[in-house]
Design brief:
This protein has 236 residues and is of the alpha/beta class. It is built from nine helices and seven strands. The structure holds zinc ion.
């Protein structure tokens, strides 16, 4: 599998800082980060009626495209149609945390993982990546925890990014597009590295099963005491 070269550009300030070292050091067989450019300023936006939305036309002029690399812009401003990602011509993707950040922070989803998931999402269909949604056959309305969830309901971004995977339908599509079964298996293994810490999973489990957790918290010392007495009786 040929790795897609990726240039990341951060435009404007982010509410939560991203650790680009984590993203750059991630070993992927689908993409490689060749450049990270930070500190790109955003001009004031005014389209006559809305001062907060940075429309596709703005980005088309602002960001230079290159058909040989994926140009991935990270920002925190509102995008067209309240989307959190926009596909432009010349392999440019604009990604904004504006709408999705509250859902991600509430569920302790690492922002670096969200970016890594997105880089897999676009790298695997890089040859067909075009403006708008002409290659929309990959994306599906149903949220399956898959790289190609549309996440029309924005809170679904949590399920998509918690443990991103490739669903059966998308796996078949990728095979049809020319990826080998071996490539897909490699990607699946790599995606397993994009996950939350076990501590957070345990914390969430305890919150969901609070009564059982309390019971175990009370019962465990009692059971441990019985076990210790039993062992002591055996060896004395
Ligand atoms: Zn899918």
């Amino acid at each position: 599998m040929k790795k897609v070269k990726v240039k990341i550009i951060q435009c404007g300030m982010l509410d939560e800082p991203l650790n680009y070292n984590i993203i750059k050091k991630f070993k992927s067989s689908a993409f490689e980060i060749t450049e990270v450019e930070e500190g790109v300023m955003l001009e004031n936006m005014s389209n006559g009626y809305d001062y907060s939305t940075y429309e596709d036309n703005y980005w088309e002029n602002k960001i230079k495209g290159n058909d040989n690399i994926l140009t991935f812009v990270i920002t925190n401003v509102q995008l067209d149609e309240n989307h959190y990602a926009r596909h432009l011509s010349h392999k440019r993707v604009i990604f904004s945390f504006r709408q999705i950040l509250p859902y991600l922070t509430e569920k302790h989803i690492k922002l670096e993982n969200v970016i890594l998931k997105a880089l897999y999402e676009y790298s695997l269909v890089f040859p067909e990546l075009r403006k708008g949604y002409e290659n929309a056959d990959m994306w599906h309305n149903e949220t399956r925890g898959c790289l190609y969830d549309i996440d029309g309901v924005l809170s679904d971004i949590v399920m998509t990014c918690k443990k991103p995977r490739i669903c059966v339908s998308c796996e078949n599509q990728l095979l049809h597009k020319g990826l080998s079964a071996k490539d897909i298996e490699t990607i699946k293994q790599e995606l397993k590295k994009i996950k939350r810490s076990r501590f957070l999973d345990m914390y969430e489990w305890v919150q969901k099963h609070i009564m059982l957790s309390m019971f175990l918290g009370i019962a465990f010392p009692f059971i441990l005491g019985l076990f210790t007495s039993f062992v002591y009786d055996l060896i004395k």
